[in-house]
Design goal:
Oligomer: heterodimer
Order of helices and strands of chain B: EEEHEEHEHHHEHEHEEHEHEEHEHH
Distance between the termini of chain A: 29 Å
Structural class of chain B: alpha/beta
Mean pLDDT of chain B: 83
Strand content of chain B: 25-35%
CATH architecture of the largest domain in chain B: 3-Layer(aba) Sandwich
Largest interface: A-B, 26 and 31 residues
Number of strands of chain B: 14
Strand content of chain A: under 5%
CATH topology of the largest domain in chain B: Rossmann fold
Low-confidence stretches of chain A: none
Shape of chain B: elongated
Number of strands of chain A: 0
Largest sheet of chain A: none
Helix content of chain A: over 70%
Radius of gyration of chain B: 25 Å
Distance between the termini of chain B: 55 Å
């Protein structure tokens, strides 16, 4: 636990020691707010649906950018050699790094709270859906982070980690879309519709917190963190 | 403290470490030398539990590297080659992080931090980011990192590469100092460094451990015969006959004759026979005009070449062979 905490602090601080965190937060807020307000003034309704609806696609490009360096850089610089010869277990490092990137996501989400507060000021939005929206956003973001982290363990090139992260997230995002499900064979239909990152998100957005959706995201996160640990351990495989 | 038994590791078809076995105890400074790609780094990585051996076993500080990797790592300070550090961290921030993951109790952290900053001479750079430091200072921060938990075993991969001569000497002295109580295993390319600091030398070549012993032991292994170079002014035939008649002399090789001066390489296989002294007496008795008399000494370089020059069929290193080749041509 102490080790996870130490890794978390180190990685979290390194986001803020470098321009990454500031650029991430600024551009994320700028782009999402602009897209949101553009639609908001057209529709003229004080609700956050549009904002949350954009998130799967904005995250697709932003999240892998946050995770791409987590392992790729360690491998490239060789710092992984010191890190992995410390008395820490591989999964502790993986968890610490994941939590640090999740921390950045939470900070970003906090900064975006300006939007719902301006909605409350301008009208009377449904508080329940906003809370659910944020919960969904964090869960989905966590799943993207876990996938991006896994992609980063596979290579020492950050660009490859970034593209790979986007690709895997993209696949998981679209397999749940009606457009894809329409053309999938019957036997794959339930699997795809369950695995799709987007469909669970939209069901949370509706304001219904179903334990199945939460379990789904937690298991996606757990699964990719497990894969990351395996990937980190693979240097030791005979 | 380190016991290695028939350690073997290959990367695909390349055999990086082949059946390496050795022991090392506390109070030893063990120098690990060998040509590039000989398997030094791989061996160190296995001992620090970064990689896993294909076969064989290794015990570090009493713990098996496979079964108790965490306990092994707790007892080892490791500096990988070229000191990879987080360039975006400050020097103190980095060392604090290391102290934390090394589980040094909070109350002692400050004290340890101070200690390694003093030992490694980091006082002048504590305000800086690691990214701003020169290669030598990064190396020192790397060393500080490996010392922070005061480990009983220190494994250093080329700790003096990139340092200036005075820093090199400092680090060597430091290694010697630490090696009085602890076990230091370090690799290097610089042979005088090994001769100056190590109590024991391991030479690894093409993945195999080809030599293991103190400098004196290795020298005596290489020096199977005593060789003396003698240069005399005079006529070649007469001197050659006389030299060959001398007791205890087993080989007389005429190297060259130049301007009335004759060069010889004289060898003796007789244990304890003072060939140089015998030759000097012969010169006095025969009234030779002695130009030069030199006892050939074997140093670590010869030892290194002897053990790493490919085929170990002949007892002579590559450089020596070439010299004899020239002499037979004449």
């Amino acid at each position: 636990m102490q080790n996870i905490n130490a890794i978390f602090k180190k990685e979290f601080r390194s986001y803020f020691n470098s321009p990454i965190a500031y650029i991430f937060i600024t551009f994320f807020l700028a782009i999402s707010s602009w897209l949101f307000f553009r639609a908001f003034f057209l529709v003229g309704q004080a609700e956050m649906r549009g904002f949350f609806g954009l998130m799967p696609w904005i995250f697709l490009f932003f999240i892998p950018a946050v995770t791409m360096k987590l392992w790729a850089e360690e491998k490239k610089l060789g710092t992984a050699e010191i890190l992995m010869t410390l008395p820490i277990r591989d999964y502790e490092v993986v968890l610490g790094k994941f939590l640090a990137s999740f921390g950045l996501l939470v900070i970003t989400a906090l900064f975006s709270l300006g939007l719902p507060f301006s909605m409350i000021y301008l009208g009377d939005p449904d508080g329940g859906t906003i809370v659910c929206g944020y919960l969904g956003l964090l869960l989905m973001g966590g799943a993207y982070l876990a996938i991006g982290l896994f992609a980063s363990t596979l290579t020492e090139n950050q660009i490859i980690a970034f593209i790979l992260g986007i690709s895997v997230c993209f696949v998981f995002l679209i397999i749940g879309e009606d457009f894809v499900l329409f053309s999938t064979p019957d036997w794959l239909f339930p699997i795809f519709s369950y695995l799709g990152l987007g469909s669970h998100y939209s069901s949370i957005l509706r304001g219904v917190i179903d334990s199945r959706d939460i379990i789904y995201y937690l298991s996606i996160i757990g699964f990719f963190l497990y894969l990351s640990t395996l990937s980190v351990e693979s240097r030791k495989w005979r | 403290m380190i016991e290695v038994r028939e350690l073997t590791k290959s990367y695909g078809p390349t055999l990086a470490v082949n059946q390496v076995s050795f022991d090392a105890r506390a109070g030893e400074v063990v120098g690990f030398i060998g040509p590039n790609g000989a398997g030094k780094t791989t061996t160190m990585r296995i001992l620090t539990c970064y990689l896993t051996a294909d076969a064989g076993s290794a015990t570090v500080a009493g713990y098996d590297v496979l079964e108790h990797a965490i306990d092994v790592r707790k007892n080892v300070g490791y500096l990988p080659e070229s000191a990879p550090l987080y360039v975006d961290m400050g020097v103190v921030e980095y060392l604090k992080f290391m102290a934390e993951v090394r589980e040094i109790p909070k109350s002692q952290r400050k004290e340890r931090l101070r200690a390694v900053i003093d030992i490694c001479g980091l006082e002048g750079v504590i305000q800086k980011d690691i990214g701003e430091l020169s290669k030598g200072y990064r190396q020192r921060v790397g060393l500080a990192q490996s010392l922070i938990h005061d480990p009983p075993i220190l494994i250093l991969d080329e700790p003096t590469s990139g340092l200036d001569p005075s820093q090199t000497i400092e680090i060597r002295n430091l290694i010697k100092e630490i090696g009085k109580e602890k076990l230091v295993l370090f690799s290097t390319h610089i042979l005088p460094e090994v001769a100056a600091t190590c109590t024991r030398i391991l030479i690894i070549h093409q993945g195999e451990l080809v030599a293991n012993g103190t400098l004196e032991e290795l020298i005596s292994q290489v020096q199977s015969e005593d060789k003396v170079h003698i240069t005399i002014r005079g006529t070649e035939e007469a001197i050659t006959t006389k030299l060959k008649e001398l007791d205890g002399i087993t080989g007389v090789v005429h190297v060259k004759t130049d301007d009335g001066v004759v060069w010889y390489e004289v060898t003796t296989a007789q244990e304890g026979y003072d060939a140089a002294g015998g030759l000097f007496n012969a010169a006095v008795q025969n009234g030779w005009n002695l130009v030069e008399l030199q006892q050939e000494s074997v140093d670590l370089e010869d030892v290194f070449l002897h053990f790493t020059s490919g085929q170990s069929s002949g007892n002579t290193p590559a450089t020596k062979l070439s010299r004899e080749d020239i002499s037979t041509e004449e």
